[in-house]
Amino acid sequence: MSSDQVATGVINLSEGDSSLANEIKELGGEELMECIQCAKCAAACPMVLAGFPFFNKRIIQAIFLGLRDALLDDSSIWACQSCNRCTEVCPREVNPFEIIQAMRRVAIREFALPTLSIEGLKSLYDTGHAVYLAGAGNTRAKVGLPEKPPSTVANPEALKELQAVIRKTALADLGIIPMDESGVKETCEV
Amino acid sequence: MKVGFFVGCNTAFNRPDLEQAVRYAFPALGIELDNLEGQSCCPSWGTMPSVDVVGWCAVGARNHTIAEEKGLDIVTVCGSCYGSLAESKYKMDTHPEIKAQVNEILKDIGREYKGTSNVRLAFYYLYHELGPDKIKEAVKHKLDGLTVALQPGCHTLWPSKVYYDKEEDPFHPKVLKEMCEALGATVGHYTRLIDCCGMGAMRSTDMEKSLKLVEKKLISMKNEVNPDLIVTGCSSCLIQFDTAQELLRSGKKINFEIPVLHIMQVLALCLGADPERVTGLAKTDVRRVVNRILEGL
């Protein structure tokens, strides 16, 4: 969106990117065109309550209008809680949550993703956990648990398996995080 | 009876006292827990699900196959794990082409997703498999005289189509309420009962907006219920309610503190667990309410 448009609130339809809707449909948002903009999803959305400029109904509207940059320049799509109230109430089975996820998938293909997502993906690949706290061993011991949970962090073979799976997914093709064989450690203490 | 315990990330690393509560309560109720050795992250929403559908399902499917090989259902206390695993299962079970692509990936590590294990939230599992009456008979301590406010959690309810355990009406949930009432608590209703707590992606993206949601909820609870305790159905809600109150107090948004526990922590206490092990990491001061539970009134 140009600064003039932001200032006036007027959307120039001829500047819209008509390929965006097709991309969304290919990346999991198959039901996009079923949306009738009734806004039932918006009435149920925590992002509306919290005051984000884009939320389910407006994200879908922006996709219809091809406003790719407006969506990529704003952090709203990354604030979606994946709570799925919208999926529950949608009278057209549009699955608005999946469309927001599809918009994230579009953003990732343009490397427009937040640092936290990159870190989460890297941590997932390196340890098997998107959330991983290095000092957790002490906390666990304090309540009488082994320092490592019985997951990939305590099981190097399982971690290798997971990494082999991830290397076969779109994440590897996109090159968002390094995943060289040589960089893989036997045990991961990130 | 035996189930696979999917511990996830936040419970294992942030609130292992909740993990310990599950490890105490299930055997105390006669249900053996399997560790699902080698499990990984579910994966959470901001990672693989935000990259592509097949990759999301493939990482989820690897977890599912660990339970399938043992012929066990999966239980978890984390809303995100519950939601992500149930949704990857739903996608693979209803879309043969997704399942086929996932199994093509899993072939290399000698695994195959079949779809034979269900994903269950710990307290729904206990409610449906044992029922509130059996749980009531098993407990040593009760919540008599305590007033609680509930935080069921978004992922425990929606989208109902992907879940094995369903509420009659997910916008008027009653399972968590009936569990607390069976333990002897008075459950107060408040207007913002089913609102989101703001934890998760919203908190990572915009702390201020996230805190606004939990502030609205806390004020609604305080004014309408004035609870002795907040009981959550989700580990993420537990972390948000437990850590946000101090931030809101220092920002002069609230002037009170309400202790917060997950339903599995409450249940473990009632079954006789060591309070340090199952509630020892709470940031809100839970000692007084824990003592009331353990000593009766």
TrEMBL record, chain A:
It comes from the Bacteria. PROSITE patterns: 4FE4S_FER_1, 4FE4S_FER_2. Keywords: 4Fe-4S, Iron, Iron-sulfur, Metal-binding, Oxidoreductase. This is 4Fe-4S dicluster domain-containing protein. Pfam families: Fer4_8. GO terms for molecular function: 4 iron, 4 sulfur cluster binding; metal ion binding; oxidoreductase activity. GO terms for cellular component: plasma membrane. Residues 68-100 form the 4Fe-4S ferredoxin-type domain. It comes from Desulfofundulus salinus.
Automatic annotation (TrEMBL), chain B:
It comes from the Bacteria. One of its GO terms (molecular function) is oxidoreductase activity. InterPro entries: Cys_rich_dom, HdrB/HdrD_reductase. The keyword Oxidoreductase applies. PANTHER family: COB--COM HETERODISULFIDE REDUCTASE SUBUNIT B 1 (PTHR42947:SF1). Keywords: Oxidoreductase. Transmembrane segments: none annotated. This is Heterodisulfide reductase. It comes from Desulfofundulus salinus. Residues 3-85, 148-242 form the Cysteine-rich domain.
